[in-house]
């Protein structure tokens, strides 16, 4: 292994133990085995880094093997994309292999199984087969075709191969154990009929091997020593080994399957089926849309190979599935781009700034550093003139003392240029500012060494010369989903959480030095974030994608929403202490408006769940969540929890809680019927007139 000091993860420990137990180092061989039925995503990136990283550490070959056993879903486009992604991440495979390379050998071995009485042709319908397979707690029953003769099985299997039967009429099954506690061992399918054109073998084959049959045998044929899969394949390991037992020659290396945890990423999905759905239903522009979790999408967005490799190393290898916050990935991207991305000036939401005392027609070329992180500092020239663009939110006509950008009567520095002072504004008929007029101190140029240049001012803002600015289309990408785990909520479609503001396109201006920027080039737009040149960009129409903000705005948003929850609970306590209906209405209005601003579905779910208890403040707050939230409704709450909540609220000592829960039940038609009898009975015991009046109205 590599001589660098580091602790071993459990995968590396497995390899080390095998080496200690006699496995020769030159027998080590790994593989990355994608199915070419979609584009690779971040989960695959972790697997790529694992397998190819092991190859580097142990100086062992790593094959890229395409498990192309289902021509109904596989395309050459996906093969090409996968190869491109692996190379872009910085890895090179030893051999390019395909399961289809072994179709004849797999068929011959299947024939051998039939001859040994370990496989048979089953002619049941898929529905009948599902019934006879049993359940996890009940053993299956034998297929009526399980005891066909070897001769009949051989004849049917050959005719299946020759294309004599329609799809679904026959399958080949392994004869293992219909009473096994592992459902996968109950006579699994080895071959099925598919009259589909294969992207490599054309129309040669009318039958195709199942993944479980092809996978382990392909590992064996390639002499893979360690076959690493994600945890969902743990139940498959027994079948993997059974299939190997049927063909294994003790003089050869026997592959060993071991499993590691899938790493799910927050605010996205990493299911190829769901990613394909996003593409097909036009939620995104394609597999390489910069909002997608695909490697192609991340590359187009401006993520770097180094940042993804660093992310994979940082999260490591685990034995349990867990959810990784996308902020960690964004941190890795930010950290790498900070080292390599040149700094430039760009204005995304422009407003014109005119320096009234600057000479007409004059242009200065000022020196600006390219990247302060460089070992040897380099510089570029940027043009400066009388009319500039600045960011609209860098100016306020009237501002508090905590506003450190441009305002009337105060000074700021223009980056790499002069100190200016706000003097006046020009507005259009709607009152929108169209021009900001300022004066400058001509002795304050940055780096001039003058006394004025060293004068301290509150803030520094960036700019672009109007005369020299290049117009650019700027695509402001954000997270594709507003919920951290969009595909884990019961009875909710993951598409319900698509962020409607995940893409905003604006027209901005960039400094002229970016005229020759090429696709994929990354820059830091100073004070804004990191951006890269999109593939749609041309010399006539520059297009930039926002890669990531300079700071984690979502972390700030998350903290803000958590604070909103906590502050609302404090307001609830005041609700019970005030004396008038007007005061209570004002407090409720404030809480309601705050709840409406919270989009985090999981946060609202957890808040509601946490506050289902006998405390009146907690119950009232939960009622307000259901009343005011635009992100979560009663139908989204677990029915058992919801009914517990309704019961507690109806029995609350507080008439305010009882009133609000009755209102919520009125809106929740399904549960209203369940609680209708209880509501009727309440009429005889309710002492609060307001609650009693409401009960009389609805029951």
UniProtKB/TrEMBL annotation:
A motif ('HIGH' region) lies at residues 34-44. GO terms for cellular component: cytosol. This is Glutamine--tRNA ligase. Belongs to the class-I aminoacyl-tRNA synthetase family. Residues 341-441 form the Glutamyl/glutaminyl-tRNA synthetase class Ib anti-codon binding domain. Residues 460-534 form the tRNA synthetases class I (E and Q) anti-codon binding domain. The gene is glnS. L-glutamine binds at residues 67, 211. It is found in: Cytoplasm. Residues 124-147 are annotated as: Disordered. ATP binds at residues 35-37, 230, 270-272. Keywords: Aminoacyl-tRNA synthetase, ATP-binding, Cytoplasm, Ligase, Nucleotide-binding, Protein biosynthesis. NCBIfam families: glnS (TIGR00440), PRK14703.1 (NF011291). InterPro entries: aa-tRNA-synth_I_CS, Gln-tRNA-synth, Gln/Glu-tRNA_Ligase, Gln_tRNA_ligase_bac, Glu/Gln-tRNA-synth, Glu/Gln-tRNA-synth_Ib_cat-dom, Glu/Gln-tRNA-synth_Ib_codon-bd, Glu_tRNA_lig_a-bdl. Residues 134-146 have a biased composition (Polar residues). Its EC number is 6.1.1.18. SUPFAM superfamilies: Nucleotidylyl transferase (SSF52374), Ribosomal protein L25-like (SSF50715). Pfam families: tRNA-synt_1c (PF00749), tRNA-synt_1c_C (PF03950), tRNA-synt_1c_C2 (PF20974). It comes from the Bacteria. Monomer. It is an enzyme of class 6 (ligase). GO terms for biological process: glutaminyl-tRNA aminoacylation; glutamyl-tRNA aminoacylation. Residues 27-338 form the Glutamyl/glutaminyl-tRNA synthetase class Ib catalytic domain. Coiled coil: none annotated. It catalyses: tRNA(Gln) + L-glutamine + ATP = L-glutaminyl-tRNA(Gln) + AMP + diphosphate. One of its GO terms (molecular function) is glutamine-tRNA ligase activity.
């Amino acid at each position: 292994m590599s001589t660098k000091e580091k602790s071993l993860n459990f995968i590396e420990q497995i390899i080390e133990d095998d080496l200690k137990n006699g496995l020769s180092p030159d027998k080590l061989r790994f593989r990355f085995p994608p199915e070419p039925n979609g584009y690779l995503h971040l989960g695959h990136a972790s697997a790529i880094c694992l397998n190819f990283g092991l190859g580097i550490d142990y100086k062992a070959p790593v094959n890229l093997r395409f498990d192309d056993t289902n021509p109904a879903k596989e395309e050459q486009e996906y093969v090409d994309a996968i190869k491109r992604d692996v190379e872009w991440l910085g890895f090179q495979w030893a051999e390019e292999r395909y399961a289809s390379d072994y179709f004849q050998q797999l068929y011959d071995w299947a024939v051998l199984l039939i001859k040994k009485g370990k496989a048979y042709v089953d002619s049941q319908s898929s529905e009948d087969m599902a019934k006879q397979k049993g359940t996890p707690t009940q053993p299956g029953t034998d297929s009526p075709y399980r005891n066909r003769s070897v001769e009949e099985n051989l004849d049917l299997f050959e005719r299946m191969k020759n294309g004599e039967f329609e799809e679904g009429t026959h399958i080949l099954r392994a004869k293992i154990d219909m009473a096994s506690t592992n459902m996968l061992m109950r006579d699994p399918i080895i071959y099925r009929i598919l009259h589909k054109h294969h992207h490599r073998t054309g129309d040669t084959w009318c039958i195709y091997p199942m993944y479980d049959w092809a996978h382990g045998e392909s590992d064996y044929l390639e002499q893979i020593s360690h076959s690493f899969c994600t945890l969902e394949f743990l139940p498959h390991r027994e079948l993997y080994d059974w299939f190997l037992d049927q063909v294994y020659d003790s003089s050869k290396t026997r592959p060993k399957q071991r499993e590691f945890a899938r790493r799910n990423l927050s605010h996205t999905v990493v299911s190829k089926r769901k990613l394909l759905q996003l593409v097909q239903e036009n939620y995104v522009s394609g597999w390489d849309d910069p909002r997608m979790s695909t490697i192609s999408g991340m590359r187009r967005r401006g993520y770097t190979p180094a940042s993804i490799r660093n992310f994979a190393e940082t999260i490591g290898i685990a034995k349990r599935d867990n959810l990784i916050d996308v902020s960690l990935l964004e941190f890795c991207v930010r950290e790498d781009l900070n080292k390599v991305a040149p700094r430039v000036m760009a204005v995304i939401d422009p407003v014109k700034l005119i320096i009234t005392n600057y000479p007409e027609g004059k242009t200065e070329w000022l020196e600006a550093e390219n990247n302060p992180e460089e070992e040897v500092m380099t510089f570029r020239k940027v043009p400066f003139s009388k009319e500039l663009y600045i960011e609209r939110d860098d100016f306020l006509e009237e501002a508090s003392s905590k506003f450190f950008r441009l305002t009337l009567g105060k000074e700021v520095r223009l980056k790499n240029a002069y100190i200016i002072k706000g003097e006046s504004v020009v507005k259009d008929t709607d009152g929108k500012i169209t021009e900001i007029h300022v004066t400058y101190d001509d002795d304050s140029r940055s780096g001039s060494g003058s006394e004025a240049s060293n004068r301290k001012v509150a803030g520094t803002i960036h700019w672009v010369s109007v005369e020299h600015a290049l117009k650019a289309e700027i695509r402001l990408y954000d997270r594709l989903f507003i919920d951290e785990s969009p595909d884990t909520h019961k009875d909710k479609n993951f598409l319900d959480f698509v962020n409607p503001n995940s893409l905003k396109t604006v027209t901005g201006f960039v400094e002229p030095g970016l005229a020759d920027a090429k696709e994929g080039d990354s820059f830091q737009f100073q004070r804004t974030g990191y951006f890269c040149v999109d593939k749609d960009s041309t010399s006539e129409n520059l297009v930039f994608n926002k890669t990531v903000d300079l700071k984690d705005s979502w972390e700030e948003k998350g903290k803000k929403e958590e604070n909103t929850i906590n502050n609302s609970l404090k307001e609830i306590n005041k609700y019970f202490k005030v004396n008038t209906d007007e005061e209570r209405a004002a407090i409720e209005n404030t809480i309601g408006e705050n709840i409406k601003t919270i989009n985090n579905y999981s946060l609202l779910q957890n808040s509601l769940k946490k506050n289902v208890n006998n405390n009146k403040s907690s119950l009232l707050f939960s009622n307000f969540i259901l009343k005011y939230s635009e992100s979560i409704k009663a139908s989204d709450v677990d029915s058992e929890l919801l009914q517990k909540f309704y019961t507690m609220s109806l029995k609350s000592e507080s008439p305010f809680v009882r009133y609000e829960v009755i209102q919520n039940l009125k809106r929740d038609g399904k549960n209203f019927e369940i609680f209708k009898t209880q509501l009727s009975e309440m009429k005889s015991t309710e002492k609060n007139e307001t609650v009693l009046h409401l009960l009389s109205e609805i029951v």
